[in-house]
């Protein structure tokens, strides 16, 4: 596998097809934890870890367990495809529990600051979406490609939420019209940021 292909997969998911700004996945933590840069960066690191590990583990489950069993028992590798969703959610929930226990033990202030958004990573559709994309896309049918895709998706999420937090920190000192304060200006900034990322279209193709 050439470096160019791997770089193309990475740039595609991190910038061009960013899970948040292009796929509109994971909007809840993107808006809820992007008030401060340090919190946003921490959440981005947590999501990157969960996406990367979940992407690799789910790839292994599909290609080394579900497909061989489906082929041997029912004559078709996709006979047990309905179990993928169950496996994906179980893996994601397990990874989130590891992150939660780690932060609670070693970074209590960050754990407290995340509040309910940390366990909600389990239901972050960006992570499930990345696992489903890895399973469907032909270019991620090797484990290395799947790992690069998952890692790039996590870094893309981190980049988006950190940029959003930096902008929101400055907005607090800006003269925002009263009718746009709060959720209005936040959604407007998110939309403009999504439009800005369309400038990366063409990279990684």
Summarize this, please?
The chain is mainly alpha-helical and 205 residues long.
Description of the structure:
By secondary structure, the protein is mainly alpha-helical. The chain has one domain (10-199). 71% of the residues lie in helices and 0% in strands. The chain contains 8 helices and no strands. It has helices at 3-16, 27-32, 37-74, 83-106, 108-114, 125-136, 143-171, 183-197. Helix 3 (37-74) packs across helix 6. The protein is globular, with a radius of gyration of 18 Å. The model has no long low-confidence stretch (mean pLDDT 87).
What's the structural blueprint in terms of helices and strands?
Blueprint: H1 3-16, H2 27-32, H3 37-74, H4 83-106, H5 108-114, H6 125-136, H7 143-171, H8 183-197
Helix pairs in contact: 1-7, 3-4, 3-6, 3-7, 4-5, 6-7, 7-8
What labels would you give this structure?
71% helix, globular, 0% strand, 205 residues, 8 helices, mainly alpha
Main sheet? Answer: none
Number of separate helices: 8
User: In angstroms, what separates the terminal alpha carbons?
Assistant: 16 Å
State which percent range the strand residues make up.
under 5%
Question: How many runs of DSSP E, i.e. beta strands?
Answer: 0
Rg, Å, rounded: 18 Å
Q: Tell the overall outline.
A: globular
Mean pLDDT score, rounded? 87
Main structural class:
mainly alpha
Any low-confidence stretches, pLDDT <50, length ≥5?
Answer: none
Number of domains: 1
